[in-house]
Amino acid sequence: MHYAFTSILCETAVKHTIKEKPMLKEKMLKALNAQVNAEMYSSYLYLSMESYFQSVSLSGFSTWMRAQVQEELFHGMKIYDYICERGGRVALDAIKKPDSDWKSPLAAFKHILKHEQHVTELINDLMDLAIGEKDHATQNFLQWFVAEQVEEEASVGEIVDKLKLIKDDTSGLFMLDAELGRRIFTPPAKGE
Ligand code: FEO
């Protein structure tokens, strides 16, 4: 009996806490949830590429991919945390199967560039929605992602350019492999 009473009290407290949070509008919540899935898919795609680069003995490319896997997980969790902070419920969906083979490092990086351009479009669509919904907090939150996509496209584009210059030059490929192998993912400090 005492337990049942305590339980009712707890439920009331939980409901009360959720109601106190500034809620996201339904459309915005759905779109942010879809972006969590898109970031998780990105992470999965890069994990698949990490495995591809390991299979062709390019360990530096593989290290670069592992850092990218962690970065994409960070992006997904950043949105996850924001949804929770705004009183929303995260709804996880199935993650699409990624490709698993590429005919060359250049083909893999061209795929990444195309993928990141698509992610930029998704972020821009989210921003358009937040503007339309007059959701200023979400607009402010999304600014970080807008800047991040500029960086992502620039760094991947640079690697595509280098791979084009290298063509079939094996020593050039090994030099780039060594350079990419120095990448370490460091999560940005809160507020950065
Ligand atoms: Fe999360 Fe590479 O964009």
Task: Tell me what you see in this structure.
There is one protein chain. The protein has one domain: Ferritin (Up-down Bundle), CATH 1.20.1260.10. The chain is built from 6 helices and no strands. 24% of the residues are buried. It has 192 residues and is mostly helical. The longest helix has 31 residues. The chain is elongated and about 60 Å long. The N terminus is likely disordered. The chain is 76% helix and 0% strand. Helix 2 packs antiparallel against helix 4.
Any descriptors?
6 helices, 76% helix, mainly alpha, 0% strand, single chain, 192 residues, binds MU-OXO-diiron, Ferritin
Uncertain runs are 1-11
DSSP summary: helix tally: 6
Q: Name the CATH superfamily classification.
A: Ferritin, core subunit, four-helix bundle
The CATH topology turns out to be: Ferritin
Q: How many structurally independent domains? A: 1
Percent of residues in helices: over 70%
Termini Cα gap: 50 Å
How many E strands?
A: 0
Strand % is: under 5%
Taking Cα atoms only, what radius of gyration do you get, to the nearest Å?
21 Å
Q: Please state the oligomeric state of the protein chains shown.
A: single chain
Largest sheet data: none
CATH class: Mainly Alpha
Give the cofactors and ligands.
Answer: MU-OXO-diiron
What's the helix-strand series? HHHHHH
Which architecture name does CATH use?
Up-down Bundle
Instruction: Determine the structural class based on helices, strands and strand pairing.
Output: mainly alpha
The 3D shape can be described as elongated
